[in-house]
Amino acid sequence: MSRVTVNTLKEMKEAGQKIAMVTAYDYPSALFAEEAGAEVLLVGDSLAMVVLGYDSTIPVTMDEMLHHVKAVVRGTKKSLVVADMPFMSYQANAFDAMYNAGRFLKEGGAQAVKLEGGSEVAELVAKLVLAGIPVMGHIGLTPQSVNALGGYKVQGKDLKTAQKLLDDAKALEEAGAFSIVLECVPAALAAKVTQSLSIPTIGIGSGPDCDGQVLVYHDVLGMYPRMLPKFVKRYLDSSSLFKEALGKYVEEVKNKKFPEEKHSFTIAEEILEKIY
Fold it and tell me: Could you name the active-site residues (predicted)?
């Protein structure tokens, strides 16, 4: 079974085949997502919010990310695993960026990294690619810059920002990025960007014309009973199923219905009689 590569994704774009990407944060989520057929698993820095309980993606560290990247890689044989560069793991200087991206490949076993930003990170992307590190870009709404952006808002709605978004996409492609995530971009603009590039775009809240789509694992499965962004489609209400099952377990423990005889191990009666 051969693993999906960056070339596979480019071939899929050329063939008009849609790319399915989903986040994964641990061994079981990687197993399920790969078995479902997702070509790309993103160990997103959204890990901070949906797994570690932070209120944004800002606090998550390299070591926390690396721990989960290793688990996801252990759960895959075929999907391309992309590790998300967390906040301040690449912004300060190229040395830090190279070192941290290298850790994801050498220690974590990921096949690629993702970082946020457009033309301002193009030079850095080129250096990483030259060093043999495949890079997925990320433009539009970039959650690590949420404080600078003034909140989680759709990006590229006026002439100036729409042109910058297209220019950023082209700059990343020229720098050697193998794919670009477009987050919260108007659908028609995302379609124009997608048509302008030879590398695939992966949309999240950016309409149906991107070359692929990505959603957060916990949102797809409805693992939290919370309001979700407009672009999310919940395919399962698993939080209700989890609560129901765990509630049943707690009830049976308290009412002495669990464990039953079939859940217990036996020992010969004569052995019991000899111990004191």
Answer: 183 (proton acceptor)
Q: Nearest-5° angle of CA 27, CA 30, CA 34?
A: 145
- Residue 117 in this model has a pLDDT that exceeds 90: yes
The CA-to-CA distance between both ends of the chain, in Å, stands at 57
Please state the domain extents for the chain.
6-236, 241-273
Could you list the active site residues?
Answer: 183
Residues sharing a CB contact under 8 Å with residue 91, sequence separation 6 or more, in sequence order: 97
Residues with Cβ < 8 Å from 117, sequence gap 6 or more?
A: 137, 138, 139, 142, 168
| Residues of the binding site | 45-46, 84, 114, 116
Q: Which residues are part of a known binding site for Mg(2+)?
A: 45, 84, 116
Q: In this predicted model, what pLDDT tens digit does every residue of 169-186 receive, in sequence order?
A: 999 999 999 999 999 999
Q: How far apart are CA 254 and CA 125, in angstroms?
A: 57
In CATH terms, the fold of domain 6-236 is TIM Barrel (3.20.20)
pLDDT at site 155 = 85
| Entry pTM | 0.94
